[in-house]
Write a structure and sequence with these properties.
alpha+beta, Alpha-Beta Plaits, three-stranded antiparallel sheet, globular, binds iron/sulfur cluster
Length: 423
C-alpha cells in the first residue's frame, strides 16, 4: 500500500495507489440549515441522467431525513459499524484543532484505522472495508421522511413543556442532501479490479469507464457513501458524473462558460454552491482566500466534510444544522462542528457576504470581492452583538469577468398600486 496525505484526518494514510493530485478539484458546500427537503435537486438529476430502463432505483443525488432515513437504507450506520469493528479500541480525534487556513491538520489528527487501513481491509480483495446493500435497501429512497427521534422510554415528549428552542432541540431531524463526493481518495476507484474508475487530472471528477466496467460491483461495495450503483440492464455500474459537460462549459447553451451542476443550479432553497479549488501536490488546498469555497472550508471553517473518518477525503462540505444533538453531528462531521455552528450563528461581515453568493447564478464562481457598505442593523443575539452591514459582493467567473453583483440586505420591492392585489 502507498502512503498519501489526507488533510481532513490530519495525517498520511495507506491507500492502494500513489498520490496523484488533480490540478483542480470539484467541490461543493451545502447549507443544511436551509434545506427544504423539496427534492428539486433530486429530480433535476433524475430527469437529466437516470430516467432510462434499469436506472429506476438510481438516485445519484438524494435528500434523506436524518437520523433514520438513508438511501440505501442504513448506509451510514452500516459503514460506521464496519469502522467500529475495525477499531475495537475506538476511533478518536486528538483534539488539536488548528485555526490556520494553511494547516495540514485543521481538525486535528484521527487516531485509528480508516476504511483502507485495518487488517480486515488489507485482506479484502479491493483493500477497502465495505458491504453490498441488498436490493431491499435500495428500494425506498425517502424512507423515514420527516421522522424525528422519538421520546426516551418513560420520558415526556420532547416538545411538552419548553417547546423547541435553540441551541439544540430535544426532538430534531434534518435533511441531508447527498451526491458523490468525488473523493480525493475514492474507495470506488481503489476497489475496482478492472481499473475502470478514474479521477480526472483537470478537475478531480471521478468517473466509471462504461466500456471497461464488467459490473463486479466492487465499487458499490467499497464506497462508504454508497454513491456507486449497479445497472442491471447494462450489467455495469454507474455513478454521478458531476455533470461534467456543464463544468467544462460544453453544455449546450453554456457558451463555453463553466456552469454549476444540475442539482446545484436547481436548488430552490439556494443552499448549494459548487466550484473548483486549486490543489497542492499533497492534495491540500492552495491558498485562495477569494474563492468562496476556500473561504468557507478553510478560513471560516463553517463547512465540514461528511464522515471524514472514512478516509476517502470527500469533497462535499456541509454547514451543520444548528438545532441538532451535537454528539450526532460530531460523529457525522468531525470535531469542527461546535466551532462551525458558533460561526454560523454569529456570522461576521465576510461570512454574511459569502452566503449571499449561493444560487444567484448558474455560473461557477472562481472569485468574489466585497465592497464595504453602511451599517444597517445592530442587535444582541445569543448574548453577542450582531452587526449587519449592507456590503456589496461581486462574483467573478473563470475568465475573471464579473458574473453578478449582489448586496447583503435584500431589496424591498413595493408593488405598484395598480397591481397591488394581483399575482
Ligand atoms: S463518494 Fe463513493 S462513488 Fe463517489 S468518489 Fe467517493 S468513493 Fe467513489
Ligand atoms: S452533479 Fe450532476 S450527475 Fe451528479 S448528482 Fe448532481 S445532477 Fe446528478
Ligand atoms: S433543491 Fe435544495 S432545498 Fe430542495 S431538497 Fe435539494 S438541496 Fe434541499
Amino acid at each position: 500500500m502507498a502512503k498519501v496525505h489526507n488533510w481532513q484526518i490530519g495525517r498520511s494514510m495507506a491507500y492502494p495507489y500513489e498520490q496523484a493530485t488533480p490540478e483542480r478539484q470539484f467541490a461543493f458546500v451545502i447549507n443544511i440549515n436551509r434545506c427544504l427537503g423539496c427534492q428539486t435537486c433530486t429530480m433535476a438529476c433524475k430527469s437529466t441522467w437516470t430516467f432510462s430502463k434499469g436506472q429506476e432505483y438510481m438516485w445519484w443525488t438524494n435528500v434523506e431525513t436524518k437520523p433514520f432515513g438513508g438511501y440505501p437504507q442504513g448506509w451510514d450506520v452500516k459503514a460506521l459499524d464496519l469502522l467500529q469493528k475495525a477499531n475495537p479500541d475506538g476511533l478518536t480525534w486528538d483534539g488539536r484543532m488548528d485555526a490556520d487556513p494553511k494547516s495540514k491538520a485543521p481538525y486535528g489528527s484521527l487516531e485509528g484505522n480508516t476504511i483502507f487501513e485495518s487488517e480486515k481491509a488489507k485482506s479484502e480483495s479491493g483493500h477497502v472495508l465495505g458491504y453490498l446493500p441488498s436490493e431491499d435497501e435500495w428500494r425506498y429512497p425517502n424512507i423515514y421522511e420527516d421522522t424525528p427521534p422519538g421520546r426516551e422510554r418513560g420520558q415526556p415528549m420532547a416538545f411538552d413543556k419548553e417547546g423547541v428552542r435553540l441551541p439544540e432541540h430535544k426532538s430534531w431531524f434534518f435533511y441531508l442532501a447527498r451526491l458523490c463526493n468525488h473523493c480525493s481518495y475514492p474507495a470506488c476507484l481503489a476497489a475496482c479490479p478492472r481499473k475502470a474508475i478514474y479521477k480526472r487530472p483537470e478537475d478531480g471528477i471521478v468517473l466509471i469507464d462504461q466500456e471497461e466496467c464488467r459490473g463486479y460491483r466492487k465499487c458499490v461495495e467499497a464506497c462508504p457513501y454508497k454513491k456507486s450503483m449497479y445497472r442491471p440492464t447494462t450489467r455495469v455500474s454507474e455513478k454521478c458524473i458531476a455533470c461534467y459537460p456543464r463544468v467544462e462549459g460544453k453544455d449546450p447553451g453554456s457558451e463555453g462558460i463553466p456552469l454549476e451542476t444540475r442539482c446545484m443550479s436547481a436548488c430552490i432553497g439556494q443552499i448549494r454552491l459548487q466550484g473548483l479549488v486549486e490543489l497542492n501536490a499533497d492534495g491540500s488546498w492552495k491558498e485562495d482566500p477569494e474563492n468562496p469555497l476556500y473561504y468557507m472550508v478553510k478560513v471560516a471553517k463553517v463547512a465540514l466534510p461528511l464522515y471524514p473518518q472514512f478516509g476517502t477525503s470527500p469533497n462535499g462540505y456541509y454547514i451543520p444544522p444548528r438545532w441538532v444533538a451535537r454528539p450526532y453531528l460530531r460523529q457525522m462531521f468531525g470535531p469542527g462542528v461546535d466551532a462551525a455552528i458558533e460561526k454560523y450563528r454569529n456570522p461576521d461581515r465576510e461570512l454574511l457576504s459569502v452566503l449571499q453568493l449561493f444560487r444567484r447564478s448558474n455560473r461557477i464562481i472562481f472569485k468574489y470581492k466585497v465592497e464595504k457598505g453602511p451599517k444597517v442593523y445592530e442587535r444582541k443575539i445569543n448574548d453577542k452583538v450582531f452587526t449587519m452591514f449592507d456590503d456589496t459582493i461581486t462574483a467573478f467567473g473563470k475568465d475573471g469577468k464579473p458574473i453578478f453583483t449582489t448586496k447583503v440586505e435584500e431589496p424591498v420591492v413595493v408593488r405598484p398600486e395598480k397591481h397591488a392585489n394581483s399575482i
